[in-house]
Structure to design on (250 residues):
């Protein structure tokens, strides 16, 4: 596994994955930071300024951006192999096929954690700049880091199902449209269920990250990271078995 992960690292260094991981959280945070800068005095309470910035950004990111980002990034990782027909070569190497598949899954989880930690850093930077530019809004006091880190790690775990299914779809389909379309349809369905039936949306796997983030502003519900990680691991095992058992020519 160490050699497999080292090979994945080399491939990622030569791809366009990292700019997407770095820029995505900063673009989203910039939107909310500008909103607070130009119109914050109308709706922000000084004692809740940091809470508003963090929770608003996390909810939007987990509910809308993250599912589409996972679909795009896993497709980009899989495209590295599809472009060069790399699986024909990898499957004849003296390396267990399940290790190759597990390596892709670990990469998906790792990149998701990177983007969530990047989002946490972007929030701290944006809030600190707002505290310097607009101290009257309530961003002058630095927030506690522990809740923000818990939110980032928990969101990554709650996204386990998303990462597992998108990694599998991206690996078995060489086109980019299928995984992107899956992420788009799933995201729209979560938004629709949340609008019309708040009770039913909790059963939607794509809603696990959103439900986790919502609980951060009250009683923390660890069920969402646990369910997300468990369903993701189970799906990864089933999908991995179907992937490694396929014909090497396909």
């Amino acid at each position: 596994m160490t050699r497999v992960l080292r090979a994945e690292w080399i491939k990622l260094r030569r791809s366009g994955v990292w700019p997407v991981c770095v820029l995505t959280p900063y673009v989203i945070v910039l939107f909310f930071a500008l909103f607070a800068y130009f119109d914050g005095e109308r709706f922000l309470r000084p004692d809740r300024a940091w809470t508003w910035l963090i929770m608003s950004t996390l909810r939007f990111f987990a509910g809308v951006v993250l599912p589409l980002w996972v679909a795009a990034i896993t497709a980009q990782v899989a495209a590295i192999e599809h472009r060069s027909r790399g699986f024909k070569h990898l499957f004849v190497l003296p390396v267990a096929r399940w290790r190759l598949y597990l390596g892709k899954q670990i990469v998906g989880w790792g990149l998701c954690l990177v983007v969530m930690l990047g989002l946490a850093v972007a929030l701290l930077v944006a809030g600190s700049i707002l505290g310097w530019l607009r101290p009257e809004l309530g961003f002058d006091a630095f927030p506690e880091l522990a809740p923000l880190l818990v939110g980032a790690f928990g969101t990554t775990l709650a996204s386990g199902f998303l990462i597992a299914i998108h990694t599998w779809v991206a690996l078995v389909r060489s086109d980019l449209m299928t995984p992107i379309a899956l992420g788009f349809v799933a995201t729209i369905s979560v938004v629709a269920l949340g609008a019309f039936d708040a009770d039913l949306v909790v059963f939607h796997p794509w809603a696990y990250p959103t439900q986790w983030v919502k609980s951060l502003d009250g009683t923390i519900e660890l069920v969402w990271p646990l369910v997300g990680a468990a369903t993701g691991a189970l799906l990864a095992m089933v999908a991995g078995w179907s992937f490694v058992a396929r014909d090497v020519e396909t």
The two ends are 24 Å apart (CA to CA). Residues 44 and 52 are 8 Å apart (CA to CA). The chain has a mean pLDDT of 87.
